[in-house]
Amino acid sequence: MNEPIYFYTLLVVVFLLAGVVKGVTGMGLPTVAMGLLGGALSPVAAASMLFIPTFVTNAWQLLSGPSVGQIVRRLWPMMLAVVIATLGAAALLVRVDRDVSRAALGVALVVYAGYALLAPVLRVPARRERWLGPLVGAISGVVTGATGVFVMPAVPYLQSLGLQRDELVQALGLAFTVSTISLTTGLVLHGAFGVQQLGLSALAVVPSLAGMWLGQVIRQRISARVFRACFLGFLLLLGLELVLRSWW
Q: Which of 14, 33, 106, 174 falls between 20 and 30 A from 235, CA-CA?
Protein backbone atom coordinates (compact mmCIF):
# COMPACT_ATOMS: atom_id res chain seq x y z
CA MET A 1 0.00 0.00 0.00
CA ASN A 2 2.90 2.31 0.67
CA GLU A 3 4.59 1.60 -2.66
CA PRO A 4 2.71 4.33 -4.63
CA ILE A 5 3.51 6.89 -1.93
CA TYR A 6 7.18 5.89 -2.00
CA PHE A 7 7.28 6.00 -5.79
CA TYR A 8 5.71 9.45 -6.14
CA THR A 9 7.85 10.82 -3.32
CA LEU A 10 10.94 9.46 -5.07
CA LEU A 11 9.80 11.02 -8.35
CA VAL A 12 9.30 14.46 -6.82
CA VAL A 13 12.56 14.44 -4.84
CA VAL A 14 14.65 13.20 -7.78
CA PHE A 15 13.35 15.77 -10.24
CA LEU A 16 13.54 18.55 -7.67
CA LEU A 17 17.23 17.78 -7.07
CA ALA A 18 17.86 17.40 -10.80
CA GLY A 19 16.19 20.76 -11.41
CA VAL A 20 18.39 22.41 -8.78
CA VAL A 21 21.51 21.10 -10.52
CA LYS A 22 20.27 22.40 -13.86
CA GLY A 23 19.38 25.76 -12.36
CA VAL A 24 22.91 26.19 -11.01
CA THR A 25 24.97 24.67 -13.84
CA GLY A 26 22.74 24.95 -16.93
CA MET A 27 22.79 21.17 -17.43
CA GLY A 28 22.51 17.88 -15.60
CA LEU A 29 18.76 17.31 -15.22
CA PRO A 30 18.57 14.07 -17.24
CA THR A 31 21.97 12.93 -15.98
CA VAL A 32 21.06 13.31 -12.31
CA ALA A 33 17.52 11.98 -12.78
CA MET A 34 18.70 8.91 -14.71
CA GLY A 35 21.43 8.22 -12.18
CA LEU A 36 19.12 8.42 -9.17
CA LEU A 37 16.14 6.68 -10.75
CA GLY A 38 18.43 4.02 -12.21
CA GLY A 39 19.00 2.69 -8.71
CA ALA A 40 15.28 1.99 -8.22
CA LEU A 41 13.94 1.43 -11.74
CA SER A 42 15.12 -0.12 -14.95
CA PRO A 43 17.01 2.36 -17.18
CA VAL A 44 14.28 2.19 -19.83
CA ALA A 45 11.59 3.04 -17.25
CA ALA A 46 13.69 5.91 -15.92
CA ALA A 47 14.40 7.22 -19.42
CA SER A 48 10.68 7.20 -20.22
CA MET A 49 10.02 9.67 -17.40
CA LEU A 50 12.53 12.20 -18.69
CA PHE A 51 10.77 13.23 -21.89
CA ILE A 52 8.51 16.13 -20.86
CA PRO A 53 10.63 17.73 -18.08
CA THR A 54 13.81 17.43 -20.14
CA PHE A 55 12.12 18.74 -23.29
CA VAL A 56 10.48 21.68 -21.49
CA THR A 57 13.58 22.79 -19.58
CA ASN A 58 15.98 22.42 -22.51
CA ALA A 59 13.69 23.99 -25.10
CA TRP A 60 13.35 26.92 -22.70
CA GLN A 61 17.14 27.03 -22.39
CA LEU A 62 17.57 26.89 -26.19
CA LEU A 63 15.06 29.64 -26.92
CA SER A 64 16.20 31.96 -24.11
CA GLY A 65 18.97 33.60 -26.15
CA PRO A 66 19.40 35.38 -29.48
CA SER A 67 21.62 32.87 -31.32
CA VAL A 68 19.21 30.01 -32.06
CA GLY A 69 19.44 30.22 -35.86
CA GLN A 70 23.21 30.58 -35.87
CA ILE A 71 23.70 27.63 -33.53
CA VAL A 72 21.33 25.38 -35.49
CA ARG A 73 23.12 26.20 -38.76
CA ARG A 74 26.48 25.43 -37.19
CA LEU A 75 25.52 22.22 -35.39
CA TRP A 76 22.90 20.60 -37.64
CA PRO A 77 25.29 17.92 -39.04
CA MET A 78 26.11 16.84 -35.50
CA MET A 79 22.43 16.89 -34.50
CA LEU A 80 21.45 14.80 -37.53
CA ALA A 81 24.02 12.18 -36.52
CA VAL A 82 22.66 12.24 -32.95
CA VAL A 83 19.14 11.53 -34.23
CA ILE A 84 20.15 8.65 -36.50
CA ALA A 85 22.45 6.98 -33.96
CA THR A 86 20.05 7.37 -31.03
CA LEU A 87 17.14 5.88 -32.98
CA GLY A 88 19.30 2.94 -33.98
CA ALA A 89 20.75 2.35 -30.51
CA ALA A 90 17.52 2.72 -28.52
CA ALA A 91 16.96 -1.02 -29.02
CA LEU A 92 19.90 -1.62 -26.68
CA LEU A 93 18.19 0.17 -23.80
CA VAL A 94 14.99 -1.81 -24.38
CA ARG A 95 16.38 -5.28 -25.03
CA VAL A 96 19.59 -5.53 -23.01
CA ASP A 97 19.48 -7.05 -19.51
CA ARG A 98 18.62 -4.55 -16.78
CA ASP A 99 21.89 -5.05 -14.89
CA VAL A 100 23.92 -4.55 -18.06
CA SER A 101 22.05 -1.32 -18.86
CA ARG A 102 22.51 -0.10 -15.29
CA ALA A 103 26.24 -0.86 -15.44
CA ALA A 104 26.52 0.96 -18.78
CA LEU A 105 24.77 3.97 -17.25
CA GLY A 106 27.17 3.90 -14.30
CA VAL A 107 30.19 3.72 -16.60
CA ALA A 108 28.88 6.68 -18.61
CA LEU A 109 28.50 8.76 -15.44
CA VAL A 110 31.97 7.81 -14.18
CA VAL A 111 33.64 8.59 -17.51
CA TYR A 112 31.91 11.94 -17.85
CA ALA A 113 32.53 13.03 -14.25
CA GLY A 114 36.15 11.87 -14.32
CA TYR A 115 36.82 13.63 -17.61
CA ALA A 116 35.17 16.86 -16.50
CA LEU A 117 37.09 16.88 -13.21
CA LEU A 118 40.53 15.99 -14.54
CA ALA A 119 40.86 16.76 -18.25
CA PRO A 120 41.86 20.19 -19.56
CA VAL A 121 39.45 22.14 -21.76
CA LEU A 122 40.31 21.38 -25.38
CA ARG A 123 39.87 23.60 -28.43
CA VAL A 124 38.62 22.21 -31.74
CA PRO A 125 39.77 24.13 -34.84
CA ALA A 126 36.87 25.30 -37.00
CA ARG A 127 38.19 23.37 -40.02
CA ARG A 128 37.67 20.06 -38.18
CA GLU A 129 34.05 20.66 -37.21
CA ARG A 130 32.74 19.43 -40.58
CA TRP A 131 33.78 15.82 -39.92
CA LEU A 132 34.32 15.79 -36.15
CA GLY A 133 30.84 17.09 -35.31
CA PRO A 134 28.96 14.23 -37.03
CA LEU A 135 31.40 11.68 -35.57
CA VAL A 136 30.89 12.99 -32.03
CA GLY A 137 27.15 13.13 -32.65
CA ALA A 138 27.04 9.51 -33.79
CA ILE A 139 29.05 8.25 -30.80
CA SER A 140 26.94 10.33 -28.41
CA GLY A 141 23.78 8.96 -30.00
CA VAL A 142 24.91 5.38 -29.45
CA VAL A 143 25.76 6.15 -25.80
CA THR A 144 22.38 7.85 -25.36
CA GLY A 145 20.50 4.96 -26.91
CA ALA A 146 22.33 2.43 -24.76
CA THR A 147 22.25 4.28 -21.41
CA GLY A 148 19.55 6.96 -21.61
CA VAL A 149 22.11 9.68 -20.81
CA PHE A 150 23.39 12.28 -23.28
CA VAL A 151 26.78 13.47 -22.01
CA MET A 152 29.80 11.82 -23.63
CA PRO A 153 31.46 12.87 -25.80
CA ALA A 154 28.99 15.58 -26.89
CA VAL A 155 29.25 17.89 -23.88
CA PRO A 156 33.09 18.13 -23.84
CA TYR A 157 33.00 18.61 -27.63
CA LEU A 158 30.54 21.50 -27.42
CA GLN A 159 32.63 23.04 -24.65
CA SER A 160 35.68 22.88 -26.94
CA LEU A 161 34.15 24.94 -29.77
CA GLY A 162 35.04 28.30 -28.24
CA LEU A 163 31.41 29.43 -27.93
CA GLN A 164 30.50 32.38 -25.78
CA ARG A 165 28.84 31.47 -22.47
CA ASP A 166 25.29 32.23 -23.63
CA GLU A 167 25.92 30.47 -26.95
CA LEU A 168 27.21 27.39 -25.12
CA VAL A 169 24.11 27.32 -22.91
CA GLN A 170 21.92 27.45 -26.03
CA ALA A 171 24.02 24.82 -27.81
CA LEU A 172 23.63 22.48 -24.85
CA GLY A 173 19.90 23.20 -24.86
CA LEU A 174 19.72 22.26 -28.55
CA ALA A 175 21.72 19.06 -28.07
CA PHE A 176 19.70 17.91 -25.06
CA THR A 177 16.40 18.73 -26.81
CA VAL A 178 17.35 16.77 -29.93
CA SER A 179 18.62 13.79 -27.94
CA THR A 180 15.51 13.75 -25.75
CA ILE A 181 13.14 13.71 -28.74
CA SER A 182 15.26 11.08 -30.48
CA LEU A 183 15.45 8.77 -27.46
CA THR A 184 11.74 9.05 -26.76
CA THR A 185 10.95 8.34 -30.42
CA GLY A 186 13.20 5.29 -30.25
CA LEU A 187 11.41 4.03 -27.14
CA VAL A 188 8.03 4.55 -28.83
CA LEU A 189 9.17 2.63 -31.91
CA HIS A 190 10.21 -0.28 -29.68
CA GLY A 191 6.98 -0.25 -27.69
CA ALA A 192 8.60 0.91 -24.45
CA PHE A 193 6.81 4.26 -24.05
CA GLY A 194 3.08 4.50 -23.40
CA VAL A 195 0.34 6.62 -21.86
CA GLN A 196 1.35 5.76 -18.27
CA GLN A 197 4.93 6.92 -18.84
CA LEU A 198 3.64 10.10 -20.47
CA GLY A 199 1.54 10.89 -17.39
CA LEU A 200 4.46 10.30 -15.03
CA SER A 201 6.69 12.42 -17.25
CA ALA A 202 4.15 15.27 -17.12
CA LEU A 203 4.01 14.96 -13.32
CA ALA A 204 7.78 15.45 -13.15
CA VAL A 205 7.60 18.88 -14.83
CA VAL A 206 6.48 20.76 -11.71
CA PRO A 207 9.31 19.64 -9.37
CA SER A 208 11.80 20.09 -12.24
CA LEU A 209 10.79 23.73 -12.79
CA ALA A 210 10.66 24.36 -9.04
CA GLY A 211 14.15 22.93 -8.71
CA MET A 212 15.42 25.07 -11.60
CA TRP A 213 14.07 28.19 -9.91
CA LEU A 214 15.69 27.20 -6.61
CA GLY A 215 18.95 26.41 -8.40
CA GLN A 216 19.00 29.85 -10.01
CA VAL A 217 18.58 31.39 -6.56
CA ILE A 218 21.40 29.24 -5.18
CA ARG A 219 23.62 30.19 -8.13
CA GLN A 220 23.57 33.80 -6.97
CA ARG A 221 24.80 32.84 -3.50
CA ILE A 222 27.54 30.24 -4.00
CA SER A 223 30.58 29.68 -6.17
CA ALA A 224 29.55 27.96 -9.40
CA ARG A 225 32.99 26.32 -9.52
CA VAL A 226 32.61 24.77 -6.07
CA PHE A 227 29.10 23.57 -6.86
CA ARG A 228 30.26 22.08 -10.17
CA ALA A 229 33.06 20.17 -8.43
CA CYS A 230 30.60 18.81 -5.84
CA PHE A 231 28.12 17.90 -8.58
CA LEU A 232 30.74 16.01 -10.59
CA GLY A 233 32.01 14.25 -7.47
CA PHE A 234 28.45 13.18 -6.72
CA LEU A 235 28.02 11.83 -10.28
CA LEU A 236 31.29 9.93 -9.95
CA LEU A 237 30.18 8.22 -6.74
CA LEU A 238 26.71 7.58 -8.12
CA GLY A 239 28.16 5.97 -11.25
CA LEU A 240 30.46 3.75 -9.21
CA GLU A 241 27.53 2.68 -7.03
CA LEU A 242 25.46 1.73 -10.10
CA VAL A 243 28.34 -0.30 -11.55
CA LEU A 244 29.00 -2.12 -8.27
CA ARG A 245 25.31 -2.82 -7.74
CA SER A 246 25.10 -4.38 -11.19
CA TRP A 247 28.01 -6.73 -10.47
CA TRP A 248 27.11 -7.79 -6.93
A: 174
34: closest CA among 15, 16, 20?
15
CA–CA dist 23, 44 (Å, integer): 25
Q: How many CA atoms lie within 13 A of 205 on its CB side?
A: 14
At position 95, the amino acid (one-letter code) is R
- Taking residue 232's Cβ as centre, other Cβ atoms within 10 Å add up to 20
Q: Kindly report the pTM of this predicted structure.
A: 0.86
CB 85 within 8 A of CB 138: yes
Widest pairwise Cα distance in the chain: 60
Distance CA 167, CA 144 (A): 23
- 147, 104 in Cβ contact below 8 A? yes
What's at 56, amino acid-wise? V
For 51-102, give the secondary structure using H, E and C.
Answer: HHHHHHHHHHHHHCCCCHHHHHHHHHHHHHHHHHHHHHHHHHHHHCCHHHHH
Q: How confident is the model over 62-118, as pLDDT tens digits?
A: 887 778 899 999 999 999 999 999 999 999 988 888 788 888 888 988 988 898 888
2: CB partners within 8 A, 6+ apart: none
Q: How far apart are the first and last CA of the chain?
A: 29
**238 CB-contact burial (10 Å; exposed 0-12 / middle 13-18 / buried 19+):** buried
Orientation of helix 3-25 relative to helix 224-247, angle to 10°? 140
Tell me the C-alpha distance between 19 and 28, whole Å. 8
Per-domain boundaries in the chain? 3-247
